[in-house]
Amino acid sequence: MFTGKPLSGQRPFGWWTPQHHLAHAVLTPVLGVAVGVVGWTGSGAWLLLLLPGWALTLHGMRNLRMMIFHQCSHRNMFRRRAVDTAIGGAISSLLIVQNFRRYSREHVSDHHAAHHMTLRDPTVQAFLISLDLHPGMTRRQMYRRVAGKACSPLFHAAFAWGRMRSFWHGSMKGEKIAAVVFHGTALTVTIATGTWPAFLVVWCVPLFPLFQLSNVLRLCCKHTFPAPGITEKRGREYFGSLTNAVFIGEAVPPAGLPPARRVRAWSRWVLRMLFVHAPVRFCVITGDTPAHDFHHRYPAKKDWANYLFTRQEDLEKGCPGWPPYTSAWGLGAAIDKVFDSLSTADPDEFDVGRIRDVSKRELFAAFED
């Protein structure tokens, strides 16, 4: 589903199962690496293949992390603790992200509980400390600061170091062994064969800077901050208001335009769908992330593999027991909602000086919520 929103009454795909999502997430980076290797070894014009190779690899990495790893932490993947833990540990070893055991504990206790969107929530910590965004800043100031971080080699180096620390500290023995064997073997073989530049370009570029850029963009549209003055910070009405669905695309041009304007409008629409919205869906809002609001309402839903359709069914039933869903169309509109909510948030409630008294976690691990 390109947009992330099914048509009214559209039936789920029968082949969307946990096994399908896992296979898709694993095979996509394999294909991406293969395409990248062909481009690198071909040189010349063949180097253009690095672009789709990076996109495929990043797409698979993000699906592994944001969907498979995430569902394993809720024990939703196959609903067997040992199996889900093994899969989660393998993913953290491959991608060098926060180790599975610690992520599972902190994600459920700090992000899916009464601490959601408080100073104890990893999302809030990432905004206030890692991105250095604060209440009172304008939307323009926030965009400029995030752009500066995204283009900063120092930021990416600190992010990568934080990922390695959050993986290694407290990880299971099997996770450590798997990471050392995989990455150690890959690096040793490429150095011995003189192909280490290919390893760095084909694998490490999507693993570090591109993965981290995608992570930052996804974080910036995931949850809104509560409005100031709210005293009752519990219950479904409150928690349901903190997450928007993020759908991909935009409305087609209106009918009845003069011929010249119609051509321009449709050309612009096609170009934006191909070169703005499609890359966002493929590399940032991947997998089940358009319907993340549904996940926060029903984190243990058995039919999570059909996330988009399950949310639509709940919407058409009138969201029983919950407030109406809210959504944004396009990454920019979704980020605007979040930045605007932070701009008007209570500066005392989200005082960055209080965070160190709340959590001692490595700061860049906070992106992995």
What would you say about this model in short?
The chain has 14 helices and two strands, in the order ααααααααααβαααβα. It has helices at 18-42, 50-73, 81-95, 100-111, 122-130, 139-150, 153-168, 173-193, 196-219, 235-240, 259-283, 292-297, 307-316, 331-343; strands at 245-247, 327-329.
Low-confidence stretches: none
**Broad shape:** globular
> How far is the N terminus from the C terminus?
24 Å
The helix content is 55-70%
Number of helices: 14
Oligomer: single chain
Structural class: mainly alpha
Number of strands: 2
Query: How would you write the strand order of the largest sheet?
Result: 1-2
Look at the structure and give the mean pLDDT.
90
The radius of gyration is 21 Å
Main pleated sheet: 2 strands, parallel
Taken in chain order, the helices and strands follow as: HHHHHHHHHHEHHHEH
In terms of DSSP E residues, the strand content is under 5%
